[in-house]
Amino acid sequence: MLVEKLKVIVAPAVTYGARSLPQSGGGPGFPGTINIRGSVLTDYLKDVIGGYIATGFRSIVILNGHYENESFIFEALELCREEGKLKAAKIIAMGWWSLVSDAVLEKLFGDRFPGWHAEHASVCEHP
After folding, report:
1. Under 8 Å CB-to-CB from 40, ≥6 apart: which residues?
2. In the chain, where are the structural domains located?
3. pLDDT tens digit string along 106-115?
4. For the chain, which terminus, N or C, has the lower number of CB atoms within 10 Å?
5. Are 45 and 72 in contact (CB under 8 A)?
6. Class of the CATH domain delimited by 2-99
């Protein structure tokens, strides 16, 4: 298993996220959709990131799985930086989609890839 090979800890996932937009496959048109305000998500992430750093974590990778969370993750990191919390830490934040090669996109979509804003809970996320 990769976790054992790299000797890392995988933190629990953040289970709620920012509001999905209708053009990205979500939004209020889907009954049962629960989301939180961006300000709440930003504050939550800032506290979680700051908490890991305060307990001694110095290398952190944040792997985002919800497109709409991206700006709030970066805002939380910026707030941590402004508060001096990132001085002793190295953090990488990215969406899983940034790891998808052009060859995979070509295989799945040909020349009809709609862009990541619209490829939400669709072809790339399903086996």
Report:
1. none
2. 2-99
3. 999 999 988 8
4. C
5. yes
6. alpha beta
